[in-house]
Write a structure and sequence with these properties.
Layout lengths: L1 H27 L5 E9 L1 E17 L2 E4 L8 E4 L6 E2 L4 E5 L2 H25 L4 H62 L2 E6 L5 E6 L2 H61 L4 H26 L2 E3 L4 E6 L13 E9 L7 E9 L3 E4 L4 E8 H4 L7 E6 L4 E10 L4 E3 L2 E10 L11 E17 L5 E3 L2 E8 L2 E12 L4 E5 L6 E9 L23
Antiparallel strand pairs: 1-24, 2-14, 2-19, 3-13, 4-6, 5-10, 6-9, 7-8, 10-13, 11-12, 14-18, 15-16, 15-19, 16-18, 17-18, 19-23, 20-21, 21-22, 22-23
Helix pairs in contact: 2-5, 3-4
Length: 529
């Protein structure tokens, strides 16, 4: 903005100096003569149009570089070729899918496993499982009954053996007592005799039956041995019986525990699934489904599809090479602009699009031109434009769709890029084709119009020379739209007024300037005052 203000101020300063110098030369120089001739025009109503002209080159409005959304891979197939029209979603290329397909298969297997686990958790008992549990419980009860019967039998055997063995011992003890009594009787049955020898000594002699005594003694020994054997037999038999009772008691205990276990297991199996277990099983399914979705997305992303309808402008992908090693494609366009009120200036703008495949819409094209800063203020988005392609003698209409906010300086000339989008389909217009544009910046219908050359403007003050009955008088006027064929007069004149339009013819010995003030009349063109 400061650069623009400086340029404008410089132009105004030079113009004012020129105006002063022109006036001085016309009134003060001795020996010089100026011959002025004038023509007149009549102020009338007319339609005005204000335009800005520029030139540029056709380029596409939209160009999209399409890349794979997922991981890179080796390009296996190309489905399109350059220049081919494609529809939205159409396949463009595919990379190797081996790993992606295997990952999807693994994820689906995981999902099936999670679903089976969930079904097992929530389905409850089947009829077969219920029958099996009932049969197990019945078998456990039978085992318990058998164990208890065995215990009763073991205890009965113990009691019976205890009585029988006790009786056997008693008999043996009685036998011992009887043997001992017989032995005593045998000893008591022995005889005693007395004799006197020649000396008169008396000798006492006891006669005993050795055979009966020894027999009685042996009988005692035998009875005692039998008693000992009876006691040992008793102890051995009762020990075995006690062990048998203990064994049966253990079997009863085991059978009771087995029965309780079977009943508890059956009760647990009959219970519905716990909420926590069901929730956990569902979470496993959800996680497995996410894995399947991700794997499916990865597989889908191995195929590059067109994001929109268009035409294939460039393909950098190469079959057999990695998609990540593909180069970038670039497209450029140059545009130049000129206006009817300023010297022409040119600039070059380029745009690049990268992607495995580049798509463009050839039906939609635009022209980008550079417009001088003196004219760009009159250009607005939405203004209509006439575009002429001289090479094909084609005229199309367009609309201003963008005006750059950043200036471009070329050879000290400030310009701004203006983009014009063609209204109709422009498939016949080739990219880069030259075009001349006429931007309609303003219109006025049925207004008073005076030739722009008849108006002199200094600062904010505009004047004309009006001739009434042969007398010329300066009149201050308010101007409006400055068109290509004249300037709108808002106030100060009436329809039918006659204006003097000076023309200047200078002699070889004099220097003159128009009464417009040294060229300032040209500064005001192009807009309302």
């Amino acid at each position: 903005m400061n650069r623009r203000r400086a340029v404008v101020n410089t132009v105004l300063g030079v113009a004012l100096v020129g105006a002063g110098l022109g006036t001085y030369l016309s009134v003060s120089s001795a020996g010089q003569s100026t011959a002025q001739a004038a023509r007149t025009v009549v102020v009338s109503k007319a339609n005005l149009t204000s335009t800005v002209t520029a030139t540029g080159n056709a380029e596409v409005v939209t160009s999209v570089g399409v890349e794979l959304e997922g991981s890179a891979g080796v390009v296996r197939k190309l489905y399109v070729k350059e220049g081919q029209k494609v529809t939205k979603g159409q396949k463009l290329l595919a990379i190797d899918q081996t790993a992606a397909k295997q990952a999807l298969k693994t994820a689906k297997n995981g999902l099936r496993s999670a679903e089976a686990s969930y079904e097992t958790t929530t389905q409850g008992q089947t009829a077969e499982e219920l029958a099996q549990n009932n049969a197990s419980i019945a078998a456990s009860r039978t085992s318990l009954a058998n164990a208890r019967t065995g215990l009763r039998q073991a205890k009965a055997s113990y009691d019976l053996d205890k009585k029988q063995q006790a009786k056997t011992v008693d008999i043996a003890e009685d036998a011992v007592d009887q043997a001992e009594d017989a032995y005593d009787d045998a000893k008591d049955a022995s005889t005693s005799t007395t004799s006197t020898d020649a000396s008169g000594n008396v000798t006492s002699t006891t006669a005993n039956s050795t055979a009966s005594t020894d027999s009685a003694k042996a009988a005692v020994t035998s009875a005692k041995n039998a008693l000992t054997q009876a006691k040992q037999s008793r102890d051995s038999t009762l020990l075995k019986d006690r062990q048998a009772v203990q064994t049966q008691e253990g079997q009863v205990d085991s059978a009771e525990k087995a029965l309780n276990s079977q009943v508890a297991a059956a009760n647990v199996a009959a219970q519905p699934a716990r909420a926590g277990a069901v929730k956990s099983a569902q979470v496993q399914i959800d996680n497995a489904q996410v894995a399947v979705d991700e794997a499916q997305t990865t597989l889908d992303e191995t195929v590059l599809r067109a994001p929109a309808a268009g035409t294939v402008a460039d393909i950098t992908a190469v079959v057999g090479q990695s998609s990540s090693s593909s180069g970038s494609s670039s497209s450029g366009s140059s545009s130049s602009s000129s206006s009817s009120t300023t010297a022409s200036a040119s600039s070059t703008s380029s745009s690049s699009t990268t992607g495995l495949v580049t798509l463009t819409d050839l039906d939609k094209k635009q022209i980008e031109a550079s417009v001088a800063e003196a004219d760009v203020t009159k250009v607005k988005v939405g203004q209509k434009v006439s575009v002429v392609f001289s090479a094909t003698d084609t005229t199309l209409t367009g609309t201003v769709t963008a005006i750059a906010t950043q200036d471009t300086v070329t050879n000290n000339v400030v310009t701004y890029a203006v983009t014009v989008t063609l209204d109709a389909k422009a498939s016949s217009v080739r990219i880069g084709q030259s075009a001349s544009m006429t931007i309609t910046t303003g219109t006025a219908t049925g207004v008073l119009v005076a030739p722009s050359s008849a108006i002199t403007t200094v600062g904010d003050r505009s004047t004309v020379t009006r001739r009434v009955n042969g007398v010329d008088t300066g009149v201050v006027v308010e101007t409006g739209l400055v068109g290509t064929s004249g300037t709108e007069i808002v106030s100060g004149l009436a329809e039918g007024d006659t204006l003097v339009v000076p023309t200047t013819t200078a002699s070889s010995t004099s220097t003159t300037s128009s009464s417009g003030g040294g060229g300032l009349g040209g500064v005001g063109g192009g807009g309302p005052r």
